[in-house]
Amino acid sequence: MATKTGLPKDVRPADTSMIPPGILDSKKRKIYNPVQKNWAYIQKYGRETQGAYGIGTGSLQPGGENGAHWHGSYSETFTSLKGDVGVYSASRGKVTLQPGDSVTVKPGEVHYFFNDGDEEVEFQTKIEPAHEGFEKALYVMYGLARDGKGGNAGVANGLMDTAVICSMGDMWPGGMTGALVPLLKILGWWGRVSGKQKALVDKYWVGA
Fold it and tell me: Whole-angstrom Cα distance, residue 20 to residue 25?
């Protein structure tokens, strides 16, 4: 239940950075990436499920895909909602999900999703357990893209921004670029110590 400030009872006004922006304003549940020309909509933040899971939906343009990556602390389940959604995982290879089909990628497994069709597709992702850092990283990625700083793979142009996103969201590159993980972890640590991470979160999450 919210107080007169609009915040849940267990959150003080000074701690609004803890509140996902879409809880305070439902319009902020949907974010857009002009680089990839796709959108994401957060159906359930982890804070709304007591940390059990997080659910979102997203779109992907024809020919689009994100870079191969892995998550160390949570699984990710993909479900096609519209069109044929491609998902690659190290254990299954490439699979095509038709509407209603799902596939789960376990923690630590390299994966990516793609659209090799001629029309935009839509899909749902569910991460278990929830990971607020992932939610924040998503807002930062899309925010940087809107500011002209987003990379084609959906992360960021700048190495430090990329490191902060990877570290905060527990999303690490796979494949040949996986060799960069040790460097990204060091830079991610520096991003936390130097205040870079806080600045990004303040701008694109708190100030969404």
Answer: 9
What pLDDT score does 35 carry?
85
CATH code of 22-206, in short, is: 2.60.120.10
Comparing C-alpha atoms, which of 100, 132, 114, 120 is closest to residue 64?
A: 114
Measured distance CA(37)–CA(64) in Å, rounded: 9
Name the phi and psi angles at 171, rounded to 5: -130, 115
Q: Which two tokens stand for residue 193?
A: 């110590």
- Would you say residue 199 has pLDDT above 90? yes
pLDDT of 39-51, one tens digit each? Answer: 999 999 998 998 9
Name the residue among 2, 21, 1 with its Cα closest to residue 202: 21
Contact of 84 with 113, CB cutoff 8 Å: no
Q: At what angle do helices 132-146 and 159-169 cross, to 10 degrees?
A: 150
85 by DSSP, 3-state: which? strand
Side-by-side strand order, sheet with 54-60 = 30-33, 38-44, 54-60, 121-128, 75-82, 102-105
pTM of the predicted model as reported, rounded to 2 decimal places = 0.90
Which amino acid is residue 126, in one-letter code? K
Q: Judge whether 71 and 170 are in contact, CB under 8 Å.
A: yes
Contact by Cβ (8 Å): 197, 168: yes
Contact 162, 141 (CB under 8 A): no
Q: Are 37 and 31 in contact (CB under 8 A)?
A: no
By DSSP bridging, strand 38-44 and strand 111-114 are unpaired
